[in-house]
Write a structure and sequence with these properties.
The structure holds 2 protein chains of 2 kinds. Chain A is mostly beta strands. Chain A contains no helices and 11 strands. Chain B is an all-beta fold. Chain B contains no helices and 11 strands. In chain B, strands 2, 4, 5, 6, 9, 10 and 11 form a 7-stranded mixed β-sheet that branches. A 4-stranded antiparallel β-sheet of chain B has the order 1-3-8-7, with no helix packed on it. In chain B, strand 5 and strand 6 form a beta hairpin. The mean pLDDT of chain B is 95. The chains are: A mainly beta, B mainly beta.
Chain lengths: 112, 113
């Protein structure tokens, strides 16, 4: 079992729709969770961080964390073609300081 | 505030050579982490430095090493390069507290021929 798992996609959504990206993790005591966006040929860009159960909203982005189910998700409302990128879920394992374990990423394609 | 900077941006080396990559963190950030990104393995953690000390290390051979200077700048070194070391090497910086947000630099694209 991989430590952090994501559906590789591509996830294709029409412009203006909600894109839902999912991630599961295996370390039950992980405390810190992050979503990064990576455009082709670029480095990862931090979108959201979430540390406690529930929802966290920032603009068009909402991160959701459920530690009991070991599940974290990212919702993108009013998706735009500029949102087309690979979205990486990252988790810090227990006692991992600043070590990030990444999922393989989900490719999102937003079509006009 | 300036972001994380990495030099050089592109590098071509021959198998068997060694290489040194440099990273300057965001001002005020004292933790620097290094990652390797390849199409096959994705993003993998190499090591993290804080206050000139390696605080955590990933599962890479001893050919991969790093260090951090008193101004928080960091370098990583790869000795005896192999073809499989061709990758994008990313540096990320964060504040001192563990498990906080990390911000990535643009990366160094290393090609080993």
């Amino acid at each position: 079992q991989k430590e952090v798992e994501q559906n590789s996609g591509p996830l294709s959504v029409p412009e203006g729709a909600i894109a839902s990206l999912n991630c599961t993790y295996s370390d039950r005591v992980s405390q810190s969770f992050f979503w990064y966006r990576q455009y082709s040929g670029k480095s990862p860009e931090l979108i959201m961080s979430i540390y406690s159960n529930g929802d966290k909203e920032d603009g068009r982005f909402t991160a959701q964390l459920n530690k009991a189910s070991q599940y974290v998700s990212l919702l993108i409302r009013d998706s735009q073609p500029s949102d087309s990128a690979t979205y990486l879920c990252a988790v810090t394992p227990s006692g991992g300081y600043n070590k990030l374990i990444f999922g393989a990423g989900t490719r999102l394609a937003v079509h006009p | 505030k300036a972001g994380v900077t990495q030099t050089p941006r592109y590098l071509i080396k021959t198998r068997g050579q060694q290489v040194t990559l440099s990273c300057s963190p965001i001002s005020g950030h004292r933790s620097v982490s290094w990652y390797q990104q390849t199409p096959g393995q994705g993003l993998q953690f190499l090591f993290e430095y804080f206050s000139e000390t390696q605080r955590n290390k990933g599962n890479f051979p001893g050919r991969f090493s790093g260090r951090q200077f008193s101004n928080s700048r960091s370098e990583m070194n790869v000795s005896t390069l192999e073809l499989g070391d061709s990758a994008l090497y990313l540096c990320a910086s964060s504040l001192a507290a563990p498990e906080r947000e990390q911000y990535f630099g643009p990366g160094t694209r290393l090609t080993v021929t």
